[in-house]
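Predict structure. Chain length: 257.
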Amino acid sequence: MRTLIRAAAATTAVGLALTPAAALAAPSPSPGATTVTKAGTSFLTATTVTAGQPVQVGASTGDHLYWSFRADAGQVHEVTATVTFPKSRSGASTWTVDVFDGLRRRQACTAGAQTPTAGASATSVALGCTLRRLRPWAEPWSGDPLPGTYYIRLSVTDLPEPDLGLPIEVEMLVGATDEGGASGDDGELAAPLVPNTRAGTVLSTEPTPEPVAEEETDLTGWLPEAGSRWVWTTVGGVLAAVAGVVGFGLTRRPRRP
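Prediction complete.
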């Protein structure tokens, strides 16, 4: 049984804004684009697609499908996919769409249902992943998205064993919008940053200090408390001296006349 998988990339997605209320529009395929008729099964065999280029490939449930695309600095990409089940299934299944950079590092999604679960009676399931804006540069130790080749992997992560190998139909689109080479982390200040120059309360008179209560002392105040280490040390010293005198008296030889 041959399964039809359609994948396409589009450039009509609206870029991520710096305000929380902004959202990306759903991507759409470019008219007149050449259709790609294959998909890779690993990172090394990933099929290269361009913006607005649809893909139609045959596959089965359980296959890992890979595509790759070129991403430039300042772009924001959105991946949407719909998996349709032509035949009935025995149970629920969980699907996922992952995006990796050129170093095989999995990139986080800022929006979209990346790992949805389709019930046993569901006829389709929708997936989505919106990536962060690509930065023109980053520190070597950071995981920020940088320009280069990115990989898309579509697969099923959990399903009943009898459903393995059943045909599916997938419609997928990759949308990209170019917002320039500036870093997506840069924003605008709502107000200038200034030091806190608000003065405190000016005192007209000198405040009167509160009186300090004097501690009551007596003649025995200099003695250590009962049970302190000084008492035990003194008692131990006296006992040691007495034991020494007694021991010397017992072991001393008597003098002859």
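Summary: Residues 1-23 have pLDDT under 50 and may be disordered.
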